[in-house]
Write a structure and sequence with these properties.
heterodimer; A: mainly alpha; MetI-like fold; 9 helices; flat; B: mainly alpha
């Protein structure tokens, strides 16, 4: 365990990358989720079909496969386009960006379902009342839909976030120097892979435990004034 | 006849290599490898689900009834396995255990702990046991009190009431959550390809590496996984129809990942 302590800076740097990746993917997935939920709830059958195909695709394919397809295939597409049009030279997709895109894409589908359910849980009359009071759609979203949607979405959102954090471990496979990559490299070089992997597990446990506390606080805040059975 | 056959074939190869965005003839040439990969994926997933499921039943019962000594350690076990990535758990067992001399010298080393297949099976079983324990515990705790009281009033022993009344209805209630667990286990099995095993994704990575391709292997792997997930959800829909017929409006499985 001494060597783990010696390499603490490497592990901390990796943890910072993991946390940044998780937060950036979360932001991207929330945006995709809001767009997806809007598309699924819209009257337009084409947008419903597209959003439906999106969630089915993600449910059917493991995240690592999508990540590799995006990382290797996306690079190929970018370079083919570049050489075809002559607009840019050889580009290399950064592993961090590929990670954010693929994790965000995957969890955007789960967020779509989360937000769709949460919006459906808001009584329709409240939105009609907002319209009757002369509120603009944005004001209705800010004052009526959003605060209640957050409350309904939080349990499932928490679940998605905890799964997302764990999914970030996969980016080490495409070579991003995250916590897992740093730890396995260090573990191999000092021949103590068990100690380093165990340290990684503990760090992940701390991350999930901390977010548990934070999200419970949010849950309380958005449930002020709601009676619970 | 043979002449035209060959020209058609050559034409297909030509189109596939030069015009089509995907070299489908190359994929067709190696499709048997993908089927072997699918066999490995299915083998490990099914075995892990079986072993994990059998482990989860007593653990869930102990958790649901707050067993004095067992509850806390079981919770520690499930919390640990549900709070950390499966990838790292697998690395810990496969790469990590070799750190200890006593493991490498023990009788378990040669046939079991040095083999990626066994390490994956052990880790996956423990992982799915942890998730299954928690939602099965929820299902057991949700048993209607009256059902248990009625069973006791009929003279059933606690064990018999558990076997005949509590568990059958708890399994039914846990079925939608279990279909998610099965699909997630299949998705998680891609970790196999990171410890040198040739599962579906492993074959896809091998194909791309060997012919220096960017999409073919991954897209084929993607299609294989989609077909498997489709079959799994089909089977579970049939089971839900059969076992949950008494519930008029049964909950379809939620799409959120129930793995936190």
């Amino acid at each position: 365990m001494d060597s783990v302590w010696e390499y603490r800076n490497l592990l901390l740097a990796g943890t910072a990358v993991t946390v940044q990746l998780a937060l950036a993917s979360l932001a991207f997935s929330v945006v995709l989720g809001l767009v997806g939920a809007t598309a699924k709830l819209a009257a337009n059958p084409i947008s419903q079909k597209i959003a439906g195909a999106y969630t089915t695709l993600v449910r059917g394919v493991p995240d690592l496969v999508l990540m590799m397809l995006l990382f290797y295939g996306g690079q190929q597409i970018a370079n083919d386009l570049g050489s075809l049009t002559g607009w840019w030279d050889y580009v290399e997709i950064n592993q961090f960006i590929a990670g954010v895109w693929s994790i965000g894409f995957v969890f955007g589908a789960y967020m779509t379902e989360t937000f769709r359910g949460a919006i459906l849980a808001i009584p329709r009359g409240q939105i009609e009342a907002g319209v009757a009071c002369g509120m603009t759609p944005f004001l209705i979203f800010r004052r009526i839909t959003w605060p209640q949607m957050v409350r309904h979405a939080l349990p499932s959102f928490t679940n998605n976030w905890l799964v997302l954090i764990k999914a970030t471990a996969l980016v080490s496979i495409i070579g991003l120097h995250d916590l897992v990559w740093n730890a396995s490299t260090a573990g191999r070089s000092v021949r103590e892979p068990f100690s380093f992997m165990f340290a990684v597990l503990i760090i992940y446990l701390v991350l999930t435990a901390c977010s548990d506390v934070g999200l419970r606080w949010l849950d309380r805040r958005y449930n002020v004034g709601v009676d619970r059975a | 006849m043979a002449e035209t056959d060959r020209t058609v074939f050559e034409y297909l190869v030509y189109v596939s290599e030069n015009q089509s965005p995907l070299d489908f003839m190359l994929i067709a040439d190696h499709i048997d490898k993908f089927f072997y990969g699918a066999l490995l994926t299915i083998e490990i997933t099914v075995l892990a689900l079986l072993i994990g499921g059998v482990m989860a039943i007593p653990l869930a019962i102990a958790r649901a009834y707050h067993h004095r000594w067992l509850n806390a350690p079981i919770f520690g076990f499930t919390y640990f396995f549900r709070g950390t990535p499966l990838l790292v758990q697998t690395y810990l067992v496969y790469y990590g255990l070799a750190q200890f001399d006593f493991v490498r010298e023990s009788f378990l080393w040669d046939p079991i702990l040095s083999s990626p297949w066994w390490c994956a099976l052990i880790t996956f079983s423990l992982n799915t046991a942890a998730y299954t324990t928690e939602f099965l515990r929820g299902a057991i705790e949700n048993t209607a009190k009256g059902e248990v009281e009625a069973a006791r009033a009929c003279g059933m022993s606690p064990a018999k009431a558990m076997r005949r009344i509590v568990l059958p209805s708890a399994f039914r209630r846990a079925l939608p959550a279990y279909s998610n667990e099965v699909i997630f286990m299949l998705h998680s099995s891609v970790v196999l390809s990171t410890i040198t095993l040739q599962d579906i994704l492993g074959v896809g990575r091998w194909l791309n590496g060997r012919y220096y391709l960017a999409y073919e292997g991954f897209i084929t792997a993607m299609l294989f996984y989609m077909v498997l997930v489709f079959l799994i959800s089909k089977v579970f829909r049939l089971w839900e129809k059969r076992w949950l017929r008494h519930l008029q409006s049964h909950n379809p499985a939620t799409t959120a990942p129930d793995r936190a």
